[in-house]
Amino acid sequence: MLSGLVVSQQFARFCLTLALAVLVLLVGVYSPLTPLSSAQSADSIPVDQIQPGMQGYAYTIFSGDQVEKFDLEVLGVMPNFLGPKQSIILVQLKGPKVEHTGVVAGMSGSPVYINGKLAGALSLKLGVFTKEPIAGVTPIADVIAGGTSSASNGSSVAALPADASLRAGLQNGAALQSIETPLVFSGFQPAAIEKFAPQLSSYGFVAAQGGTTAARPDDGKLAPGDMAGMVLVQGDASINSACTVTAVQADRVFLCGHPFLSLGDVQIPMARSRVVTTLSSDLASTKIVNVGGSIGTITGDHLTAVTGKLGVSPKLIPMDLNLKTPAGEKNLHFEMVNHPKLTPLLVGLTAFNGLTQNVVYGEGTTLHMSTEIKMKGHAAVQMENTFAPGDSLNPDAMPIAIALMSNFTRLFGNTLEAPEFEKISLRVESIPGRQSYTIDSAWLEKGEATPGETLRVRVLLRPYRGAARIEETTVRVPDQIAHGTVLRVLVSDADWLNRASRGFGFSGGSGGPEGLDQLIGMLNRERRNDRLYVGLFSPSPTMLWDDKELPNVPLSQISIVDGKPGPGSVQILRESLASESSVPLGGPVTGVISLNLPVR
Questions:
Q1: DSSP 171
Q2: Distances (CA, A) of 391 to 234, 355, 442
Q3: Regarding the domain delimited by 38-176, which CATH topology (the fold level of the hierarchy) does it fall under?
Q4: Which of 111, 120, 534, 554 is the most buried (most CB within 10 A)?
């Protein structure tokens, strides 16, 4: 009995050993066909050991959630390609799929293995309309360094611009350039995106339509070859970037193998991306992507990698859009990133798309816009203006988008602090027809005045269509005006009176206020464009100091600063606004007329 028990124990140990051996063998056999494990992540090959002719493979997704393997061969190493001591590995992709699609937009970041070791991230493609899929690989040491050092913050992308390629004599774009990172638009129509094509192309974006999917519990379980990217806008429409994951180290994620926009250290939400299919094209193959749930934060956008951290996502700026028309009312909600280079464009594009791409919107209407922009620790910015359709082919909502972009650019452009936006509320009311007016002529009831006198001013206005009309208002001559003074009566739109009374600071020029509070005060005092203004100016200097207007400044004080203004803080105007009146008209007013008024 004892000997039988010993034999049974020995047999059990033998079976356990055999099972473990088979398990190890199976892991060894199947691991090259599965995404990179943590053990493989640590087993990398330095660029100085890579030679032409070496065989390798890479992982990416062509459809669904299935990470697929394709082969490649090393063509050579290009030292100092991205910059000093930053090389690129040149490879040729092999296999039926990549030979059919070529290098695909969204493939950047695909982990590349040479001799079974992690070599880097697929990041560059060679040329356009090329017959062979040749690509560049960012060495893995540079990918990892890109996430731990800000030395490359602000560096330019590795791609050669098209005009630079031509100047260098590179024909047909035969140059290595970054693999495009698709900017996935969900809820946006191509017609809306095309209106912002110049701004998007200046950023190097490749616009692609996609969708959104519900968040899944496994969204945050990333492996090399999966896809993820930045969340720029989410809500009733969304804008996201999409790259392939190169490596995952604990909660750190490395993507793309090249910069998105070289934004440096950032705080932008990171989301899972899921591939619907890959569209093959001789010009530019791309992945069609749906965006999944938020999984963390993009923390870096540097020369050799985009990096993120799994976990909590940063806050976005909420924007509510209310559109009221005779056909009905529409309420939309969006959220977007807070970044000085991105937010102005995203606000304008999202607002334009939200206004135009719904059933209650129609062209040929006059749009009344009111906006409130709330910021932490500061008064809200209040914007109110009217926009009438023009004779050009630009959609009626485009001026609203431009106005929003302009004001956000000005708010981000203050030199003292970075604004922290809490909420954007945009309300647009649409009134059928074009209501706009042009100032044709103006006259005073008398050719001269006395101190303290109030004079009537009549203005002939021509509407877009229909009979001309006369509007009347008054100006009052100040009591302290000296006899013999010649005053100037300015009959104008809001923009002309702003310039005459505030110089160029109101438009964000070098004479504007430096501080955010001062800028907010100036923005909130801007005159509305749907009013006729009459301003009375006296020939005495006005000092503009940040957001403060100091009329009738003594000459002794003017001599201290005139000609020597502090940078962006002081302007001297040769006139002072003595009085002002306005007439609301319900549509934009344009034009200016200047009249002289002697004081007897």
A1: G
A2: 34, 20, 26
A3: Thrombin, subunit H (2.40.10)
A4: 120
Q: 133: closest CA among 93, 187, 163?
A: 93
| CB within 8 Å of 124: residues ≥ 6 apart | 88, 135, 136, 137, 138, 158, 159, 176, 177, 178, 179, 258
- Secondary structure of residue 421 in the 3-state scheme: strand
Q: For tokens 């006729």, name the residue.
A: 532
User: Is 432 in a helix, a strand, or coil?
Assistant: strand
Q: What is the pLDDT of residues 462-521, one digit of tens each?
A: 999 899 999 999 999 999 888 889 999 999 999 999 888 876 544 444 445 668 888 898
Of 125, 234, 257, give the one whose Cα is nearest residue 184. Answer: 234
Distance CA 436, CA 448 (A): 32
Indicate the domain borders of the chain: 38-176, 180-310, 324-432, 437-598
AA letter at 58: A
The residues with which 125 forms a beta bridge, in sequence order, are: 135, 177
Beta strands in 128-204, from DSSP E residues, in sequence order = 134-139, 176-178, 182-186
pTM of the model: 0.77
CA torsion sign, 539 to 544 to 547 to 550?
negative
Neighbours of 39 (CB within 10 A): 9
CA distances from 277 to 33, 65, 106, 286 (A): 20, 10, 11, 9
**Contact between residue 572 and residue 579 where contact means Cβ atoms under 8 Å apart:** no
Question: Is 215:293 a contact under the CB 8 Å cutoff?
Answer: yes
Query: What is the DSSP secondary-structure string of 199-262?
Result: HHHHHT-EEEE-EE----TTTT---TT-EEEEEEEEESSEEEE-EEEEEEETTEEEESSS-SS-
Tens of pLDDT, residue by residue over 412-453, are 988 888 899 999 999 999 999 899 999 999 999 999 999 999
Residues 6+ apart with CB under 8 A from 15: none
